[in-house]
Amino acid sequence: MARYFNGREVELLAPAGTFEIFKEVIQSRCDAVYFGGPVLNMRMMRKGYNLTHEEIVEALDIAHRLDKKVYITVNNLFSEEDVEEAREYLRFLDGARPDALIVQDMAVLELIREMELNLPIHSSVMMNVHNLEMIYALRDLGVTRVVTSREMDLQTAKLLGQRSGMELEYFIHGDMCSVHGANCYFSSHVFGMSSNRGKCMKPCRWDYRVKKDGYVYPAEYPLAVKDMFMYEHLPELIESGITSFKIEGRMRDKDFMVMLANSYGEAIDRYIDDPIGFDRTVDTKELYNNRKRDFSTAYAFGKPGLANINRRYEGTGKFYSTGKVFSTPTAERELSEKRVEELRERLAQEKKPKTTKAKLAVRVNNMEQARVVLELGVDSLYLPGDVFEPDRPFTKRDIKELGELKGDSKIYLGLPRMMTELHFDQYDQLLGGERLPIDGLIVTNLGAIRRYSSTGYPLIGDGSLNVYNHLSAQLYAKLGLTQLSVSPEMTLEHFATFASRCDTPLEVVVHGTPALMYMEHDLYENTEVMEPIAEEDNQYVHNNVLVLKTDKGENPVYRDQHGRCHLLFAKELCYLPLLGEMIDLGISSFRIEGATYSAQQLREIIISYQQAMNRTEVKDDMLGGLEPIYAGYTLGSLQFN
């Protein structure tokens, strides 16, 4: 079965959580169905869901007899243990012959190449594909279809599809996230449950209050977005040239999914048959009456603002498959001496021969901080591509001034985490002119690697690449990266095993308040639109910084020069007591996230880490007397096994 409009294929792609649901959904008016197998997918939280090996084989037979397609999700990040399991699973899938796999981890691409398998690959939304260079890079790696970033509007999708010739897949209905794909680490740091490994505890659905400038605002659920609803905009979807229209809902029940697939499929057929006389609203009332949350078109027609935030049933769990709220506000765990000793013992088991002396790197946010870093002779100074307000981006003059001051230090220029075509034009102009006094670039996405690998500037990979296993690291090394930042979601066992097996130089963020969420959604709009309900100062950060407040603490939210928001730890990450074991494990670089500190605070932190790395000073206190600036210290995701 296939649908065409003016010679372009239009595919309706529906989900199925179980084999019983699949057997009903495949008979509906969809063209293809996607589901997960028994392992390695993003929906592993609920028992009884996903398909067995035997059910996968039978499902493929049923679908192909109906002339429909099946895509199987192998779309979470792999630990080292998962890599070994994936070899057998991929070998099975190669024999079963699905129409494609939907994947997030680069390790899948490496395994398919290494094992010489014949499995078509679609990139998952968790790859967060958002620019033309990323599409080209994935095409070069053998990917045949891209699921676009949730934040991509239809006009951008049309442009990227036309220029690349790549098949694009776009979410049209269902549960959405407020955070850029694969850029949410809140669940892993607080619960040890990775959102990129199918175990998200949904802190985006917690009840928060917004605080700023000494006032409290009644935001309630400021991160909880509405469900996607594009039923009335099928003409615009088809006109954009998108190939596959994707419905979210692998945890939804059978009757609900069949109703959705039939409503959308019938509407597509009506439009293809009579585009001029097409009625956009035939099933709108039924879909609205059966909604789980309220509806939004999200980013399809531009940045939606507060109109994208849901109120219906938030906090009740009525829209979850289990009928329960996934989690409630929970404070980050404190750094305890007992847990530190357990981590030290485990890391000490994985010693590696030292090849080079470990370096210290510091990411800053302004020139005053940068001068302190260079004055202290830190090995690497990182200038960010995303600068927190009220500071402004580093100018070419700033970079030249720092180049004159750097001495033996190295300076690396960071790129924005999300790069539009405009950003590429701007950095092309900056990097294509006179040689800058920098020693390399910090690349944040696959497209930037492809674009700037031939500039002559060495490239190091940032944490947003989500490197979780040695195969993924191996692929990025082949693409030209000389160093990689370890995934922020690494738990103890995963980290120890990965670091011991990886040959690529690795960097670990060891101190500071790295971003737990990175989003296009502007939380600051709450303070511009809503009237305050109380007065209350922030506990740990200046009042001009917005914070999300629960009864467990306050998370600061910084907005960058692109208007994107970065939600940070309430507590500071601190691996100071673990540096010796990490050095012996072969970690090449330790990074301090210094953006939110004053110059004096940053100076003290740097000196403490320099002393610990040089092992020049021993104190009874496991933190060497270093006191937290914010709500305390935490070990983040590393505290979990």
Automatic annotation (TrEMBL):
Keywords: Hydrolase, Protease. It comes from the Bacteria. InterPro entries: Peptidase_U32, RNA/ubiquinone_mod_enzymes. Pfam families: Peptidase_U32. The keyword Protease applies. Belongs to the peptidase U32 family. This is Peptidase U32. It comes from Paenibacillus odorifer.
